[in-house]
């Protein structure tokens, strides 16, 4: 039993290392929530992992009181413009208006890089404030717009998400 607890503690500590240092140290109690693959016609695009901070965090009740982080580990090279357009298309599909999308396009181009297979992007949603983004563990920018953050994270977490199976995997409450 003690051996299992030690292994579990090591796993949790190692998993938390996937979050950028400034995210881990900025909020107490980050823990991994759920994880799943995003595929398109059978091709894996990325592995998504949801992290929550604080004891009371509940990603199903966004915006909620505590921050959440979405980690995307890319399985393919994807140009920045494709990431931007896909994000805008999904936010539009989920109800964002054209004036918002026009503003947010500039923000997304600023915070998103071209990604290469093996790259990681982490987005952190701070309810009521906005979002911060990290590429390869380094800050790539912030969007200080609470509505942007809500709409952006809805791409994965909204009940109308394009990938209900990924949403379910992300929102699966951890064991223990």
Question: Which runs of at least 5 residues are low in confidence (pLDDT < 50)?
Answer: 1-17
Order of helices and strands: HHEEEHHEEEHH
Gyration radius, to the nearest Å? 16 Å
User: How much of the sequence is in beta strands?
Assistant: 25-35%
Distance between the termini: 14 Å
Mean pLDDT: 83
State the shape: globular
Give the proportion of residues in helices. Answer: 25-40%
Strand ordering within the main sheet: 1-2-3-4-5-6
Structural class: alpha+beta
- Major sheet size, sense and barrel closure: 6 strands, antiparallel
Counting DSSP E segments of at least 2 residues, the number of strands comes to 6
Supply the number of helical segments: 6
Describe this protein's structure.
The chain is α+β, with helices and mostly antiparallel strands and 176 residues long. Helix content is 39%, strand content 26%. It has six helices and six strands, in the order ααβββααβββαα. It has helices at residues 2-16, 21-26, 80-93, 98-111, 146-157, 164-171, and strands spanning 31-40, 43-52, 68-74, 120-126, 130-135, 138-143. Strands 1-2-3-4-5-6 form a six-stranded antiparallel beta sheet, sandwiched between helices. The longest helix is centred in the first third of the chain and has 15 residues, at 2-16. The protein is globular. It starts with a helix and ends in a 5-residue tail after the last helix.
Write out key terms for the chains shown.
6 strands, globular, 6 helices, alpha+beta
């Amino acid at each position: 039993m003690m051996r299992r607890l030690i292994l579990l503690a090591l796993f949790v500590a190692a998993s938390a290392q996937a979050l950028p240092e400034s995210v881990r140290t900025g909020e107490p109690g980050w823990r991994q929530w759920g994880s799943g693959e995003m595929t398109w016609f059978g091709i894996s695009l990325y592995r998504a992992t949801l992290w929550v901070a604080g004891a009371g965090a509940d990603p199903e009740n966004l915006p909620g009181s505590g921050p959440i982080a979405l980690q995307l580990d890319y399985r393919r090279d994807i140009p920045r413009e494709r990431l931007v357009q896909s994000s805008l298309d999904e936010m539009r599909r989920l109800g964002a208006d054209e004036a918002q999308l026009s503003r947010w396009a500039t923000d997304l181009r600023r915070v998103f890089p071209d990604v290469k297979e093996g790259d990681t992007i982490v987005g952190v949603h701070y309810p009521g404030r906005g979002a911060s983004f990290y590429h390869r563990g380094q800050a790539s920018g912030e969007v200080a717009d609470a509505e942007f953050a809500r709409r952006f994270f809805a791409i994965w977490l909204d009940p109308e998400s394009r990938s209900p199976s990924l949403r379910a995997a992300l929102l699966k409450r951890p064991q223990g």
